[in-house]
Design a protein that fits this description.
mainly beta
C-alpha cells in the first residue's frame, strides 16, 4: 500500500515444517502463518 492510513502496513507469510523423531513427544508439525503489522499512534 503506497498511500492512505495503511501505507506502512506489512504482510508476511511463512511456512514451517518440523519432522519429529520417535523420541520427541511433541510430534511433527506443518505450520503456515500470516503475520500482519499495522503501525498506529497512541497519542
Amino acid at each position: 500500500i503506497q498511500s492512505g492510513p495503511l501505507k506502512a502496513t506489512a504482510i508476511r507469510a511463512t511456512y514451517t515444517t518440523h519432522r519429529a523423531s520417535k523420541n520427541q513427544s511433541d510430534g511433527s508439525i506443518n505450520e503456515f502463518r500470516v503475520v500482519t503489522t499495522i503501525p498506529f499512534n497512541i497519542l
